[in-house]
User: Fold this.
Amino acid sequence: MNREEVFNYAAGPSVLPVPVLETAASELLNYRGTGMSVMEMSHRSKVYLDIFNETKQKFRDALGVPESHEILFLQGGGSLQFSMIPLNFSAPGDSVDYAVTGRFAGIAADEAERYCTVRRVYDGASTNFAHIPTQEELDLDPRAKYFYYCSNNTVMGTSWKYVPDTHGVHICCDMSSEILSHPVDVAKFGLIFAGAQKNMAPAGLTMVIVDRALCGYERDITPLMLSYQRQINKDSMYNTPPCYNIYILGLVLDWLKTMGGVTGMEKFKHERAAIVYNYLDESKLFKPCAEVESRSDMNVTFRTGDKALDAEFAAFAQERGLLNLKGHRSVGGMRASLYNAMPMEGAVKLVEVMKEFEASHV
Amino acid sequence: MNREEVFNYAAGPSVLPVPVLETAASELLNYRGTGMSVMEMSHRSKVYLDIFNETKQKFRDALGVPESHEILFLQGGGSLQFSMIPLNFSAPGDSVDYAVTGRFAGIAADEAERYCTVRRVYDGASTNFAHIPTQEELDLDPRAKYFYYCSNNTVMGTSWKYVPDTHGVHICCDMSSEILSHPVDVAKFGLIFAGAQKNMAPAGLTMVIVDRALCGYERDITPLMLSYQRQINKDSMYNTPPCYNIYILGLVLDWLKTMGGVTGMEKFKHERAAIVYNYLDESKLFKPCAEVESRSDMNVTFRTGDKALDAEFAAFAQERGLLNLKGHRSVGGMRASLYNAMPMEGAVKLVEVMKEFEASHV
Assistant:
């Protein structure tokens, strides 16, 4: 199949902008007359350091990261952050607050529990994670060492529409599946992290934005690679970073700028998701999974209520070039991930195919 | 410059085979009719799992990894292995043996010291790391929990020509800068690890080969991502692996096969390095740094003995398209890394340019 015949709704790794892939392909054997691929460059060479530093600056500009916060290019994905956060920001016996609004926030809380006392200040299990709590529903501890939440929950397709007021308790946030899709007031956060493989770059790069003032207090047992302070001291080059992924991120940030940056992307993602949600609200066959107020623009989840029919639809869609619509294995149903690089046509086409399927099944 | 005008002697990330880059470029926007880039594929999709499983099998075949040993695709580089090894293979109070034959073995020993008692069974500092110890020079402890060494030392350009006899003590080995360059009797090792960015793939992938029988005893404080057992249980997909790097590794393994595999590569690397060493042994200007018996075929180090002249040569070579010949910042001089993908012409051309420089400076 040609790329034009396919829409890829994978939850991550996921679709990248075509102009980014075109540039990457054209530069793959010879980056701008250097005679080398970016994959082959020493991370300490001037040509690569220019790519690295420019990408860092573009990221800072795109998200408006204040100078108080360091930008780190790490490895290990969100799952490694689940350990790094308690190891760097808590001491044994400390109490920390976690809002469990989805699968990955739950795993993060479990991992933190191995190092300190975890209060689950909200647990969405009773609503099957279809609901994002209001400020009033959060049972926050003013003495917590930090408050943790996941701003967009990929599995159930929910997102937080506000940053909780924690009365000064530092906020750590997993933004993996929505980073760079809308403006963020970074100063409100102690730490933001995001795996690259949804809105940014190929898997293997983890972006961390961290308030420098919080670093340097990691536990003695913390592996050196997992110390934020050490990574800050070495500007993410304590060892070789995932150089090629960082290069692709730079290209994605160039593309993002042509799309109007995070402000342009916010408008775009609302419109794109609305195309699907508007249809789902009318459909007699498909039902959206998340509560209306909690819906994510990045991951739209829906189901027929019949497992066999869900599977039939996923296969029906796949035959038409609509790939990876199957929901996460832990919940079933369908999930259409509409990340930054998904064109508007991806939402239009999805609704078209859902309508076609519905017409023959109602 | 064109690729043909350049030789890249970087110590890592470093040169990749041209056919690999050509295939990667041609498949970058559309992998074999899927309509997707490998960068965009869900790591749980069939098309990607096929790439993953085939690459794993090719790696097992290339190195002859016995079924007793698991192959893991991890992140974090050698530096993260420096922590994972003691966290997984030792308990507090245990004693472990480290042979310090270079910079990175030293850093590994320092990191292990944070978790257990480290005996430095050999320390090359007195010879400025120009020497690799013989079996007799190793002060091994039969009760050590494991013995650790780095088989090729990138900074000083030395390599071990034998696997030490430890009388049953498990061996952990950093093979980052020589893996897949010669046959290895993997059964002799408890664990082998290697960062991908020298002989295998772009930076961001760390290969680990580990004896399953040794796993499952990690300490309570070990972050879940850093447990070998957990990574084995999840077949390196506890979270999203560095998918694209794994794909490139698969292409490199295809290329390696056309070169006669690790046996062909061993012959090739001896011949390639000999071209440079033979000249160095005759040169009146350049002196090799490593002892003859300890010389590495992967990293050839040399100097004039005059810092200004070293710098002059590096600049002279760079003007002629010979890139990244400057030695590691900790030792100075020059280093020509001749990894698997370096063609024979890279050694020939280097000697040509050295001769030219020598002719005008002696």
Observations:
- The CA atoms of residues 24 and 168 of chain A lie 43 Å apart.
- Chain A has two domains: 23-257, 260-359.
